[in-house]
Design goal:
CATH class of the largest domain: Alpha Beta
Oligomer: single chain
Distance between the termini: 48 Å
CATH topology of the largest domain: TIM Barrel
Number of domains: 2
Length: 387
């Protein structure tokens, strides 16, 4: 495939690069094998020797890399944009757990929801996504439209999610939820041992899902997914940490997200959730933790040291967190940060909306910082607030 267009990307933090009138050559495996100004002699030779005419993107439009959504709950797409009036722990009981349990009980509905989710992701320019699934391990369901499943095969419900993303051409890192503690008695795994067995089984089968495909076509990978500390026993978390070490599987969860969640963990465990994750060996360079709004600079520095990334979800933070994420401090420290839509805690699946919200939150924080310094000077006191 040959494309002539203006290209826009950000190769490093704080740098926006615009490549005008460039030739892009994409090989049969989907890899970019040539990129340079279309006026160069080599580009002109490629165009002359090509057996196809290039696609020319008209002036005023441009191409950019697809967006990466670092935090999205696949089953919660079922009720996107509703039920955002409750504190986090109540919201989970009232909406999230019920929606996930409903999809676990209805694989036909699950396929329908996940297919629409894939369509919307593509429409909004998302080409890679880190997904939370549901907890159910096995069901019988014959998927007729999609491959590579065969009818009446037994598999984890979250494999429907993985299969839909693979078929849609979306690079997806998919997690079957692990949770052996729950305030919703019908939506919980039997024990830590059962949850660990299910997580390992899912990882094996998710990998096998694409094993027969050429390497460049394997778009889905499994992710170990303890929902968050309030729904996972220490035994389960430690077992997932061990499994990740042994098989080099990625990890995703939520951390330091909301006041009620933080207080719940302190009362139950005697420490904050970051300490629980650390002692379970779940803060690694394979880990993405969503939110982290209550982490101060030293805690963010610790994340940078262990290589753990943060999924910054400014839209859902506005609903469920009493604190904004300290984005500027995190970037200055060297913490890895990406954006997440956090559907359905966030009401929009569009990463562009997450970008806009991140800018708005940052401007509000900067205004608060300036006002704090001004007030401190007026009262003759040093500014002690670090936003």
């Amino acid at each position: 495939m040959l494309i002539i267009a203006d290209l826009v990307h950000t190769p490093v933090l704080h740098q926006l690069e615009i490549l005008r009138n460039h030739l892009l050559v994409i090989n049969e495996q989907g890899f970019i094998e040539y990129i340079a100004s279309s006026d160069l002699p080599e580009s002109l030779r490629i165009l002359q020797d090509a057996h196809e005419s290039p696609t020319v993107v008209p002036s005023g439009s441009f191409l950019l890399p697809t967006f990466c959504d670092l935090h999205l709950h696949g089953p919660q797409f079922l009720y996107q944009g509703t039920g955002l009036h409750l504190p986090l722990m109540e919201w989970l009981d009232e909406y999230a757990f019920k929606a996930e349990e409903r999809l676990d009980a209805d694989p036909v509905l699950a396929e329908t929801v996940y297919q629409r989710l894939a369509d919307r992701l593509i429409e909004h320019g998302t080409g890679a996504v880190l997904l939370f699934g549901t907890i159910k391990t096995e069901t019988k369901y014959g998927i007729q439209k999609l491959t590579p499943f065969k009818s009446s095969q037994i598999f984890a419900i979250s494999l429907i999610l993985a299969n839909v993303m693979q078929s849609a051409g979306i690079r997806a890192f998919v997690g079957k939820l692990s949770m052996d503690i729950s305030s919703h008695p019908t939506y919980v795994e039997e024990s830590a041992e059962a949850a660990l067995s299910a997580a390992e089984s899912f990882a094996t089968r998710c990998t096998a899902l694409v094993a027969s495909l050429p390497e460049h076509e394997r778009l889905v990978q499994p992710v170990l997914t303890p929902r968050f500390v309030p729904t996972c026993s220490d035994r389960l978390l430690q077992g997932l940490g061990k499994l990740s070490r042994q098989r080099r599987i990625r990890i995703q969860s939520h951390m330091a997200e909301a006041q009620d969640q933080m207080e719940h963990v302190r009362q139950e465990r005697g420490v904050d959730d970051m300490a629980v994750f650390q002692r379970s060996d779940l803060l690694t360079d394979r880990t993405v933790q969503a939110h982290c709004t209550f982490l101060n600079a030293p805690a963010l520095s610790s994340l940078a040291e262990c290589g753990t990334a943060v999924a910054h979800c400014p839209m859902s933070n506005a609903y469920f967190s009493a604190e904004p994420f300290r984005l500027r401090e995190a970037l200055q420290i060297g913490t890895k940060v990406g954006l997440g839509t956090d559907v359905a805690g966030g009401y929009s699946i569009d990463v562009m909306n997450s970008m806009r919200q991140a800018v708005a939150v940052s401007r509000i924080r900067e205004g608060a910082r300036i006002m704090g310094c001004t007030n401190a000077k007026q009262h003759g006191n040093p500014a002690t607030t670090h936003l």
